[in-house]
Amino acid sequence: DKSTRGGLKPSNPFVRGKAPNLRVDITDYGYLYAGVRPLGESEIHVRTYHFIMPFHQIRPARSESGLPTDAGHIWVPIDDHNCMVYNWIYSTTDADLTAEDRLERGLGNGPLHVDPKTFRSFQNRTNNYGLDRAVQKTESYTGIDGINQQDRALQESMGPIVDRSREHLGPADKAIIQARKLLRDAVRAVENDGQPAGTGTSYYTVKAGEDVFARDADWHRALAPDITKDKILQTV
Question: Residue 60 is part of which domain span?
Answer without folding.
Answer: 13-235
